[in-house]
Task: structure prediction
Amino acid sequence: GNSRKVITLPKEESYREHRKAARQSEYIARQGREALEKLRNMG
Result:
């Protein structure tokens, strides 16, 4: 179902989506690290 839709996307479009997803996961990972640091400092 969905996998066929992804393949029909223009290359630059899927690339842009991939970059956006990578940036978001990077941001989430950074937020998680900062939260861990705060917890460590409190304890």
Observations:
- Residues 10-42 form one domain.
- DSSP finds two helices and no strands in the chain.
- The mean pLDDT is 86.
